Amino acid sequence: MDPSGVNIHYLTGDQGHKRWDKAVVTGLQTLRSLVHENFLPALERVSIILSRLLGIARFHESEAEIGFTSAQIMKVMDIVSCLMLVGNKILLLVMEELELFHAFSIWLRHEIDCLASSSTTEDLTEKDATMEHGKVLAYIQQYMPASPLRHYLSPVTAEEVERDRKIADGGTSPLEILTKRIQKQESAQVDAGSYPQVEFLYKYLESQASSVLEGIAEAERRSVRFGQATKIVLDKNMSRFDARLSAAPAGVRKPDMTSTRAFGLTFGVRMRGEALRTRP
Hints:
The chain has 280 residues and is mainly alpha-helical. The protein has helices spanning 8-11, 14-59, 70-116, 121-129, 133-143, 150-153, 158-168, 174-188, 198-223; strands spanning 238-247, 263-271, 276-279. A 3-stranded antiparallel beta sheet has the order 1-2-3, with no helix packed on it.
């Protein structure tokens, strides 16, 4: 949580600290649940489906009827692997931030109590000795100004998406590019741009998957073949085509019918100048 723009006196008060603690812990736990219970399992199921499609593509590599190639499926699988890598990074950061914030919150609660309490110096010193000051300092330095989660969960502009998409389409594996950018970002604290962002990877996955699905749909359309038309030549012009559904007792002949059926569909064709000819 970034406390900038918030009244620091309110946050360090009793009520402010409780609300701050509840907001941060609830938000991080919700994000952890979404990634662990929904995001990563969904990507694993997608990977299973893609592996089956890859097997089909390799089996029919020399044929164009299926509408997609193994190279296309490999590209989509690479993007899914990128999302899984980012999902695991987010999960690790959320767990770490929860742990560090917990230590920071305990320390802040202790400092608030010190200011408001009339306890002896000896009691306060004993409590202070149990504080994890290393974690408190790490939270203040690394997470309080801006959470590292911003490298994966920030909105991206259309220009950034277009720029990084050209890089991804350059021939290098998307997973390779992402891994290098994350390593640079973590070692030198360099901004990796929109490439590690979930929003960018999702849009890139959507465009590649749409291309595969369009290819499959086009192949299905090509596979539909219509037979040759059959020309029917009649002695006279057809003036009327009639279809009627009628019920009749067995053995009873209806007017204008050429057959006896208990229940059947009767077709009649009337030629010019002739009575209606019927056919069951």
